[in-house]
Amino acid sequence: MRKRVGILISGRGTDAVALIRAAAAPDYPAEIALVLSNRPEAPGLERGAEAGVPTLAIDHKPYGKDREAHERAIDAALKAAGVEFVALAGYMRILTPFLVSAWSGRMINVHPALLPAFPGLHTHQRALEAGVKLHGCSVHWVTPGVDEGPLIGQAAVPVLPGDDEERLAARVLAAEHRLYPVCLAAAVTGQAAAPASDAALANPPFA
């Protein structure tokens, strides 16, 4: 049986589209059951719908500062859709312990940097300012610390002379589209072992 995956997005949803396309293959070990966004205007919702995937928006704004209440609504929607595994794909909200715990060992994230370098936001700008020669992306298990979970896989891209943030971001995004489907497949099949607990245990990278 293929694992039913829910994708959480906040924006364009290009990584979600990459996962949807990969899941269209009959031998892919996961099917995309839901694309859910905290922003009703997120273009990724339309992209998901165009691909024939159920979509849902649960706007965070009516919940104010009560992040957990918003996440409880998300959790209920995921369960109602029969979701068994969650992939964060450009979901721009810091998760509370509630959702991290509820989906511990069943939630992964893609991050536009070679972790542990450049966790958090503005990764491409920070990479350029640091003068690194290699940049890239990482897929990791979600644990309580932001971008601290055990790695599943990474893909590196060169930082080229004359790169600006936009050029570098485009190259990293293309790498994400290749890496994320491979890592999701590894995660749902157990080839990339989930952490034994919420602790960020050392885990060998998959790719």
Automatic annotation (TrEMBL):
InterPro entries: Formyl_transf_N, Formyl_transf_N_sf, GART. GO terms for biological process: 'de novo' IMP biosynthetic process. Its EC number is 2.1.2.2. Pathway: Purine metabolism; IMP biosynthesis via de novo pathway; N(2)-formyl-N(1)-(5-phospho-D-ribosyl)glycinamide from N(1)-(5-phospho-D-ribosyl)glycinamide (10-formyl THF route): step 1/1. The record marks D147 as: Raises pKa of active site His. SUPFAM superfamilies: Formyltransferase. Belongs to the GART family. This is Phosphoribosylglycinamide formyltransferase. It comes from Phenylobacterium montanum.
